Each structure stands twice: as structure tokens, then as C-alpha cells.
Give the backbone structure.
Amino acid sequence: MLQYILRRALFMIPTLLVTSLVAYIIIELPPGDFATSYVANLAAQGDTASQETARVIREQYGLDQPVTVRYLKWMQGILTQGNYGIAFEMRQPVASLIWERVWLTIVLSIGSVIITWLLAFPIGIYSAVKQYSPGDYLFTFLGFIGIAVPSFLLALVLMYIQFKYFGTTSGGLFSTEMSNAPWSWDKVVDLLGHIWIPVLILAFGGTAELIRIMRANLLDELRKPYVVTARAKGLPEWRVLLKYPVRLALNPFVSTIGWTLPYLVSGSIILSVVMNLPTTGPMLLRALQVQDMYLAGALILILSALTIVGTLVSDILLAWLDPRIRYQ
Amino acid sequence: MSTIRLIQRAVFVLVVLMLVVGCAAPAPAPAPTQPPQPTAVPATAKPPEPTKAPVMEPTKAAPAPTTAPAAKYTEAPLLVEQVKAGKLPPVEQRLPQNPLVVKAEKIGTYGGTWRMGMTAGTDDPSFYKIFTYEPLVRWNIEWSDIVPNLAEKWDVNKEATEYTFYLRKGVKWSDGKPFTADDIVFWWDDVELNKDLAPAPPVWMIVNGKPGSVTKVDDTTVKFTFAAPYGLFLQNVASANGRSMLNFPKHFAQQYHAKYVEKAKLDEAVKAAGFSSWREYFIARVGQADGGGFGQYSVAGRPMLYAWMVEQPMSGTATQVSFVRNPYYWKVDANGQQYPYIDRLTYGVFADAAAMLLKATNGEIDLQMRHFNTLPNKAVLFDNQKKGDFSFIDLVPVTSNAVVVNLNLTHKDKALREVFQSKDFRVGLSYAINRKEIIDTVYVGQGTPAQAAPLADTPFYNKQLATQYIEYDVKKANEYLDKVLPKKDANGMRLRADGKPLTFVIEISNSLQDQVDAGNLIAKYWKAVGVNVQAKPEDRALLYQRKDANDLDAMIWNGEGGLGPMFDPRNFFPYSTESAFAEAWQYWYNGVRDNTAEEPPADVKKIMDAFNKAMTQPEFTGQVKAMNEMLQMSADYFFCIGVTTPPLAYGIVKNNMGNVPKKMINGWQYPTPAPTNTFAYFFTK
């Protein structure tokens, strides 16, 4: 087991390097650079910035150097000093901009995973055991809605209802007084008061998916001979159920841990933009739009790293959970 | 049994994981916005020692509370409390000897918070246009004259090469330190001329290829000297260009500047703050040479000269930025009440304009004219006027035209260039456009057919430039086009002189839907007269990159210089990279001498000379006369094709906000609404 973990951990290093390279190249692909988009952005707002400004920006941020030089410099900064470069737009070190958002993203992500599991796990078992019962039909129906409705649409509907019938606007993860306050117990409470809406919205779609998977997997297992044997030997029904079939059906729960972060970053960008959540999604979107490449690169790199770590965790859990998995 | 344990264990692991993450979250949250030296400025910017006797107060006789100055000026309740608590000196000691008296339409009452929204990106104009427009001299509300601001008066020598400004005596930065000529000299000598901070000095301070010089005459007198006559200097100071000049409080900025701090000490501070050079550190804490960016807004309590100062600073994670009244603001109303009337400004930071729109319809935004105030959103806002308790402000655009087609007169393809350079060809295309239809379908009937020209009611109006070739006349169009390209193929599409089919692309920014719609119609009209054109919407950055590289056939953008053509004559001759119709000539005009540049023909050079001449006139009347000569030459040349005068833009304002004009000029050089005295806006009860 230990050897297995070590080997997996070693594999992570080249994966990360390749990811960083790919991320950097993707960010470089669109035409123009931060200076062009800065000028174009001002012009679209009816403002003008001279070409001189663009030239100065290019010079200041080293945009006139070749891509390879910039990539190597960037990697060197990260590896030797933990310096992710400067976010062009905010003129601040990338590191100081992103960590809070990364943490909030993780909290949101784990919160929604837990809610998803708490809902999907019992409902899935119920749906499988009581196949074709009214309850099963009800959850199946809800599940299809959950899969079909994109999370941002759900958020829009909720926000509209809130606006139309309660006269308040929602959005954000903090109340206005708390948004810039330093972290304190009050702020955590404030966060908990706001985070449940996006967590529930995000969990809704995921729950529906997992219910279907759980139900299908468990139905497969329930018909296998070992279950029949166990039942014939007079084991109580709940032990028959939980001892092996559920354990095996848990596989999809555990194996999706690693995907949670990328799902949240890519799948919830629109939700985060719509609900104005201070997570990494909107920041990444904005950074890509204005070609703030150190910021975008750093975000992609950190999220890839977290995804890779998440995959490792789910592999380890899987190996431990499912006896069919071999270490070699 | 083990199954239960297993599930228990799994849940336990998860809970622990969540707790770890949850608890770890607050810990690493950095405080990027705090200046490294805690001694610099406390977060709330209370002036340091209220006990220190101010200079102008006689040291022996303690002033009786009933002396004249005390009765002369009054202040906001928020500040009265601070004075009582001994945190601030009394108002008459904070105001300059001769505060600027600004008469507002109504005498206002103190208090309230002005709520706005901004986007998370390059949105420092949201601050600049509301309250950080405090140049040495400023525009009056009508945009017809220059009036005193931080400079009480100024002298210009006969040749217009020397400008002397006399600063208001006793003006203080928001931390109570005096504002002097040194601050302006610091801006020029240590920021703009410092290669580390600004690789090149700003273009508007360069005359005849030489940067001007800024010298201190005494504490309150500062002199600008140029190598040659520079008639537009005052206008530049009063406009967006002059904004950086008053951004650099020397006593604060020097602690981040390599010239004033020991290298080892500065390097340490730079490293501790996570930067890799002192330039980045300086820009993030003090500000940029061009006055843009967020540096000056990212340190709470940083000394400022504006009516409000930073309370909750701007940062990458901020979801709200706020500003609180500056106790040292140097303007008063007719009754001697210190401005501003409103206590606080708050900006919600939004990733999306739609979220801002929702806030606005719900009445949670008090006055705003940016981001969500688009023509398509007007109907939504109109329907929610009552619910949100707001009404509309008309914004008169300074732009000259909503849709300007720039054919690339300096095209890299010789054959196309020859066609585009033919005036008859452009005239023919202009006659072929059905402007009325574009106005009705794209601009809901707002606007009148027009070329790109200064608007009527300005001293720069030129009837020929504004109205030539704007009738919709297919017959005339064909007549003119036949003069240039008489041959057609079997489909009725015109052939070039070399026999190849004439075809080109009009590139349009996909961020401007109205121009995309108009561009498609224009392509349709032109095909009808045998000119094969495709309209191609594309990303703005790509469009700009192709324009700058002179890779375009044609491009649509809006026209500039409707009200202030001297600032941006881009449509009247090849003036800047924004003159998309002749990038190669423009490069030549701007002193570029590489293969992107090309010497223009003599008649174009004459127009350039005429503008240069206008620029050197010391008096406004002289400038107008010279400009009009230039505009007449431009009208005769006919560089680009305009479609319609721009539609009115709008802002929204809460019904309980006073002193807000119902109609404003909307510009950048006149940074709306700041010149209408936002510090005098107030909330009625």
C-alpha cells in the first residue's frame, strides 16, 4: 500500500509540469496580450489609452520577451521563491490575490460534496431496494430535473424569486459589512449564513446523478448469488444490504472526489458569476478575458495540483474500499 | 460489523477533512492591502497629533470659541464628533486660507452613503469619474471654460511656453500634511522621469520631442516650461491626462521610492510584501505614472486630495470598496459648509453587469452611468423606475458618430489601396448606405444621418464635413463607383483594375452589438451596388491587434471628437493608432520610422501641419480658428464614412439625490459626472 501511494505521488510531479506547460501555452494562444486588451477595453468604454501606454505596459511586464523565456522565468519564480508573478490588472502579486479565493472554492466544493452524499446515499439505497415504488418514481422524477437544469439557471430562478417576492437581492458569500473584514468567528458564521444557497444549488445536480448511479450499481449487486446466499442463511436484511452490495456500490462516490474541484471551477463559473461568489471561477474567467496570464496560469496550476491530489486521495480510498483493486 | 465501522470511518475522515479545510481557510488569508510600515498611516487615517498647534494659529492667545473663523465654516456631524474627541483639529484649521467656494444649485444636508457598482477588472475609471478628478485647473460644468481648482490662478507667458500655477495656500492631504509644489515636482522628476517607474514620459508633456520641465518657485508656486509654444497645455491639465499629477503625496510616496530609501531596507520591504521589484511595490502601494490602476486605492487612509478617501481598499478579493469623507477637503459651499455632503461612497464589485442591473432595479444603486446603462437594458430599468425609486439622466455623448467605417487607405495590397484611396469610391459607398433604415432598426429611431464630424452647436461645426454625401441614392452611388471600377462580373459584382473580383472584409468588435448589426446592413447595401463586402464580428483584442499591425481591409468603430475635436481628431486626419483608416500614415505622423510607417502624400501632410499649428495657439479663439482650417481640409479629403449621430446615453439617479443635473455631457476628457461637482450631491430626507 505504502509503495503504491509513493509511486502515485511520484507520478504527480511530471503530470504537474506538463499541466503547467499546457496551461501556459493555452493562455498564450489567443491573439494579442494584456496590453492590447487593456487598450481595447478602455476604448470600448469610450476612453482612450495611447499606444505609448500599451508599449510601456509591454515593457514593464516583459511581454516583449519570447514565450519560452517568460515561462521559464515564471516557473523559476514559483519553484525557488513561491512567487507566482504579478497580476497585470491589479498590479499585485498573484499569490496575495488568489489564496483566499482558492480556500473559499475548496470550502464550497467540499460542502457541496458532503450535502450531495448525505442526500444521494440514502436515497440511492432506498430507490434500489424499493424499485418501482412511488417513492422511487418521485426521486427519479426529481433526479431527472436535477440533471436537466443547469445550476446557473437554478440560481437565476432563485434570485428572481427572491427579488420578485421578497424584495431583496442575493449574491456573494458575505454580507456587505463582512465582505472586507478580517477573518473572525463572526465572519465564519456570516459565511455559513450565505454559503448554503450555492452549496445546495451545486449539490442538486450532483445528487441527482449520484442517485442514479447508486441505484443502478446497487440493483446489479442485489441480484448476485452471494446476496441470495446471505439472505438464505438468515442474515437480517440491513446487514445483507450494507455488508457487501452497498460497499461495492460506493465506488462511484469515492472515485469522483478528485473531479470535484475541476467540476466546481469549470461547471460553476457561470453560477459564480451570476451569484457574484468570490471563488476562483470568475477570477479565472476575467484573467483569461484580459490575458492576465500569470494570474490565469497560477490559478490553473493550483487547481490542477489540487485535482491531482484529489485523485490520489480517491485512489487510496478506492483501494481501501474495493478489494478487487490490486496495487500492482 | 466492519461495514458499519467502515462507513463510520469514511464519514469520520470526511468530517476531519472538512474541518481541516474549514479551519485552515481563515488562517492563510493574507492582508495584502496593509502598508508594511504600520507607522505610515493608520487604517482610518486620523491625523497624527491633534495637540500640535497648526501654523496659522497664534501660539499664545488661545482662540475663543466665538472667533470669526469658527462661525465662518461648518462641517459634517461625522467630523464634529471626531473634533470633540480630539482626533481632529477644528474645521477652520483644516481648511486652506482661501477654500474654493463652489455654489451648488441647492444648499445640501450632510450624511448618507452613495452606493454604486463596478466591475472586477480594469475599472479605475469608476473611481476617477466619480471623485478623483481634482486637477490643478478644471472644466466648468458646461465644458466651455477652464476654472481654478487646486491652483487659485495661473499665468501664461506670451509664447505659451511657460505656465505658472499659484496653488491654494494651506491645502492639506487627507492625513493633515501640507500639499506643496514639492508634491508636483516629485510627480514629474521622481515618477514620470524615473525610468524604473515610467519607461517614457507621457506624450502630452512632450513638445517638439522634448519633455517639459517642472520647477518649484516657492512652496505654493510651480512652473511648467516647454521647448516650444504649447497652446493645449491647460486643456490637457484639466482633462484625463492631468489626473496623475496630483496622485503622489511626496511624504507618503517616498517611503516606497528607491531614491529616498536605503537599498537594503527597500529590498527587504519589497520582498516582505511579495513583490519582485521596487517598481511593482511602488505601483501597488502608491500608484502608476499614468494615474490609472488600483495602487492609490489599495491602501486604507492613503493621503489624497479628493473629497473622499479610501476606507475599505480595493484588492483582488474585495467584493466591496468604500470611501469615506476626507476631513481636510478644501472646498466649501456658499454658506461655508465644508464639502462633501455625502459621508461615504461604496462600490460593490461585480463579475457581471447583470447582477448590477438587478441591484439597480431593486433601488440598491443611487447614481450610476456605467456598465449596465446600455440601450437594451433601458426598458428593464424603465419598468422598475417606481419600484427602485429612481429616474433617468440624459447623457449627451461627446462622440461624433455611432458607426464609422474606416477603409484602410494604407492597405498592404497595392490594388485595394488604390481603390480605397480614390475619393470617388468612398463617396459612392457613402451614397449607397441607407442611413435612415439603420437608425430606425438599430438605434430605435435615435439619431440623424451624419458623417464623422464635430457636432452642431460647437464652435468646430463644419457643415460640409458633417453632411456631405449622406443622402441614400443608389443611382449616384453607382455613378461614382463606375468612375473607379466600371467592370463587373456575371453576378454584377465589380472587378478590380487587374481583373480580379473586388472583395474585402469589414471587421467589427463583437462586444458592440449595435455596430455588428449596422455592419451587416452596410454590407448588404454595398453588395447591392456591386461591392462585395463581408461583415466579420470578432474579438475586440484581435481586432485591435490587427488594426495596429495594419492588417485590416476595413473596420467599424464609433467616431470621436464630436464635442472636443482637439483632444481626439482621430477621424479627421491620421492622428493616432485609433485612426484605423490610415495606420501607416499615422505611424509616420507619430514619429515612427520603421517599416510600419509610410510617408503620407502632400495633401495629407498639409492637414497634419494644420493641426500642429492649432496645437501651438496660446488662446482658445486662435485654436478654434486653426482647427476649423484643418477640419475644412479634412472635409475636402473625406477620410472615413460616418452613418449617424450617436444616440443619447443615460444614467440612473435615486429620486432623493439632490444637485444632480438632469442632463450631462458624457465624455472621458470631461470625465462625467465629476465636473458637475459630485461632492455637492446630497440626499434629501
In short: The CA atoms of residues 576 and 586 of chain B lie 6 Å apart. Chain B touches chain A through 89 residues (CB under 8 Å).
